[in-house]
Amino acid sequence: MVDTALSRAGIPTAEEIIEPSPGALLRKRVFGNTGLIIGALVLLTIVFVAVFASFISPGDPFDQQLARKLIPPFWHDSPKVTWEHPFGTDALGRDYLTRLFYGARISLLIGFAAMLISGVIGTTLGVLAGYFGGRVDMVVNFILTTRLSLPVILVALAVVSLVGSSLSVVIWVLGLLLWDRFAVVMRSATLQIRNLEFVAAAQALGCSTLRIIVSEILPNIVNHLIVVATLEMAHAILLEAALSFLGLGVQPPEPSWGLMVSEAKGLMFFDAWLITIPGAAIFALVLAINLLGDGIRDVTAPENRN
Amino acid sequence: MLFFALKRLGVAIFVALTVSVITFSMIYLSGDPAMALAGETATETDIANIREYYGYNRPIFIQYLDWLFRAVQGDFGQSHYLKTDVSNVIFERLPTTMLLGAFAISFALILSIPLGVIAAIRPNSIIDRIALTIAVVGQAMPSFWFALTLMLWFGINWRLLPITGTASWLNFVMPSIALGYYVTPGVMRLTRAGMLEVLGSDYIRTARAKGLRPVRVLFKHALRNAILPVVSLAAVQFGFMLGGSIVIETIFAINGLGFLAWESIQRADLPMMQAIVLVLSIFYILLTLFADLLNAFLDPRVRVG
């Protein structure tokens, strides 16, 4: 009774006065960002599929049954359609859904590992250039310019073909080539904060340079780092698919999505779904990671949106 | 301006030299190039002969200098597979790739600049949302899959466009779209951001206050300044595209530099691979040099800062 009387009198209630806690504000921003939620959900689903591929797959990714080859997926109107192979089978009679599930492992593994390697290289170079400036900045800038002038796909293809292609070679080649954006973003992020008071305070206290960089600079630019990391992971996944498509990435019989498109390209005019399904999988994964990255940027630094 | 240009040119030459070292040392990744050339059944004397013939027995530094000295004069040696001059083959194929790249970048600019401008006029409107969605979707599409899908629908199902070769300009439509679409999100975002910034500035308000027609304000006053970074991005992206053409040319069987690169990689044709990587890198370096100089010429702040 009293409560309603008060609010009728125009006096705000307790809920209206108390400012929401920072956590609540963050939650509101996270859950208000549709792209972020969709991206995170799709990515989580794909990660789940990749981790539990051996439990949820209907078959074995390498098991060839030539008698049951090229069964169309369930949405096709064909007498051959069977629920034993919901996404059909490829030209060698391997279950397509199973290969798709196992392919998620390869994409995620290569994307994540390449991103880690390039992240370490790029962040180190970028933070050093931003923190020290001057000569160091010039040298890093030179390395960066040199790296940018090398055509990525061409050099990756050439190196993989010369060294011999394997999962770890693909990861290292992509990791060593894709660090440029890390360096650029980390450099400008470091530049923005290196002259702030808390850095000066740490310097005045006599902290070592390493300690200043690790415990003063890095924690303050980690949100930029995460955003670039998602973008570069997506980039690495796209490049792996392209390398595998050209026959110089993951080698058969491994089920890489790019390789699946490549293997099906001779049949695409008769069975278009053979390229549609793995292509859509790459698209969904890359889109999810990009949406997540954009979402994280909007939530942590909304001023950078435009 | 002259000082800036000379400094920038010096950096470009230094970068080009570093790239040439990387390109040259690439062939040693597989171990001994003579052994790789000779094949598995070769005898010791065969390998020694090949080493002698191609000069692989000289000190690496001498080999590099010799290669560089000839490369500067336009001589990249003989193709191991085609047995003709590498430079002849490259210059025969280069125009096709340039043409494809020019079509692709034109497609990208024609699509993305108007979209970016419209998005900036009405930020957060439906059109802006659609443009941003196109950008996000475009960035996630694997180019080879997009190319195959285009081929499937426009080439096979609807029979609108030829799917392979370079017989007429119609053959370039799909490859240009497949190669160019990847650039559109970046150009669009940059145009949008640039326009948003410029449209908020004082001189635009002055122009509007003078009673100039909105179209004139938009294109004559605003776009002119907002387009500057777009020009340098387009130059840089054109360089990236020439590298990325390897995927598209392979799919559409376009007889350009990218296809040649793919063939040479398949054939382990080392001199050809080296030459293509070097030519594309140098081209990229020249493009960025051009973009930087243009920017410095148009915007004095770049020269000083």
Give me the Rg of chain A, rounded.
25 Å
Q: What is the count of β-strands of chain B? A: 0
Instruction: Please provide the count of β strands of chain A.
Output: 0
Q: Biggest β-sheet of chain B: count, sense, barrel? A: none
Overall body shape of chain B: flat
Proportion of residues in extended strands of chain B: under 5%
Strand content of chain A: under 5%
Rounded to an integer in angstroms, the radius of gyration calculated over CA atoms of chain B is: 24 Å
Structure classification of chain A: mainly alpha
Query: Average pLDDT of chain A, to the nearest integer?
Result: 88
**End-to-end distance of chain A:** 49 Å
Alpha plus pi helix count of chain A: 14
What is the N-to-C order of secondary-structure elements of chain B (H for helix, E for strand)? HHHHHHHHHHHHHH
What is the average of the pLDDT values of chain B?
86
- Through-space gap between termini of chain B: 12 Å
What spatial form of chain A do the alpha-carbon principal axes imply?
Answer: flat
| Uncertain stretches of 5 or more adjacent residues of chain A | none
Number of helices of chain B: 14
Main interface: chain pair and counts: A-B, 43 and 50 residues
Helix content of chain B: over 70%
Instruction: Indicate the structural class of chain B.
Output: mainly alpha
